[in-house]
Amino acid sequence: xxxxxxxxxxxxxxxxxxxxxxxxxxxxxxxxxxxxxxxxxxxxxxxxxxxxxxxxxxxxxxxxxxxxxxxxxxxxxxxxxxxxxxxxxxxxxxxxxxxxxxxxxxxxxxxxxxxxxxxxxxxxxxxxxxxxxxxxxxxxxxxxxxxxxxxxxxxxxxxxxxxxxxxxxxxxxxxxxxxxxxxxxxxxx
Length: 189
Ligand SMILES: C[S@@+](CC[C@H](N)C(=O)[O-])C[C@H]1O[C@@H](n2cnc3c(N)ncnc32)[C@H](O)[C@@H]1O
Prior knowledge:
The chain has about 190 residues and is of the alpha/beta class. The protein has one domain (about 5-185): Rossmann fold. The chain is about 30% helix and about 25% strand. The protein contains six helices and eight strands. It has an eight-stranded mixed sheet with strand order 1-4-3-2-5-6-8-7, sandwiched between helices. The chain is globular and about 40 Å long. S-adenosylmethionine binds next to strand 3 and helix 6.
């Protein structure tokens, strides 16, 4: 069932036992369904604002009798601001987020240093942040943002087990000859 979390009244209470991975801005859900299959022992959270997309993913989950996915209809800022307890997530994927390339739209970009700083509190110490984009300017913007935060350290490890998994957007980009840049960080403090 999709959980709809609205503003500061929405809370999601994690189960005690599972490792939890979050696909933030999961879109059509191709990636999170791959994660769910690869890691049946983990709980895979898929979060997005687009309810219609989440409903379609939920149909696939129901048809496939998939037990280890929870979908959240939530704005990412609310999710990391109020909805999750600290130290909940072992890995977060923010893959091909909307790049908002026009200068007048830059303020809509999700991956800022403020956002990443708050997100760090939701990661367990040693947890992993996986970012990707096809947009060189957004890549630079994200790297500048994360460079301001001593709580993250760049690593070459952390996604070796999912390097073969592609999101729906990544597959689309690859079809038209665009490559997607992946970066991985570990929460160190
Ligand atoms: C460009 S799509 C990428 C989808 C998927 N990660 C992929 O690579 O196929 C970006 C997704 O992020 C979602 N999104 C954008 N801003 C968001 C926000 N503030 N909170 C939650 N989801 C958001 C959009 O609805 C959209 O589904």
